[in-house]
Amino acid sequence: MSGTNMIEIRNLCKTYGDLVIFDHLDLTLAPDTVYCLTGASGIGKTTLLKTLIGELPPLQGSVRRFETLRITYFSQTLSWPDPKQSALALFSDCYPRKT
Fold first, then answer.
1. pLDDT tens string 7-65
2. How far apart are CA 90 and CA 79, in angstroms?
3. How far is CA 99 from the centre of its chain?
4. Numbers of helices and strands, H then E, in the chain
5. E strand or H helix at 2, and its extent?
6. Beta strand 60-65 pairing with 19-29
7. What are phi and psi of 15, to 5 degrees?
8. What is the spatial distance between Cα 97 and Cα 33, in angstroms, rounded to a whole number?
9. Cβ atoms within 10 Å, residue 51
């Protein structure tokens, strides 16, 4: 891992059957930066995120994460015990700020 990058992706490849989701993807995510992943349904946004957190293995390539990095992922079918609680409140309860 070079410098202070939080995530380094090199030559990443992921497919579903014959459908290529991404191929030879290189990407570096730096700290203190906000990233937004947008696109049409079914183009691989969730697949990329699940690969970044290690829930899905890459077909080829590597994903290296800074060892103290904590990634939180909210599924598209997210549910929790109190449906009236906001996602922000749930996140704050699970990961309180360190003072």
1. 999 999 998 888 888 899 999 988 888 888 888 888 888 888 889 888 889 889 999 98
2. 11
3. 26
4. 2, 3
5. none
6. unpaired
7. -130, 160
8. 18
9. 23
Identify residue 98 by its one-letter amino acid code.
K
Phi, psi of 28 (to 5 degrees): -125, 125
Q: Does the predicted TM-score (pTM) go above 0.85? A: no
Q: Which amino acid is at 5?
A: N
The Cα–Cα gap between 85 and 97 comes to 18
Query: Helices marked H in the chain — which ranges?
Result: 45-52, 87-94
Which residue is it, tokens 């990961």?
Answer: 95
Residue 49 is inside which H or E element, if any? helix 45-52
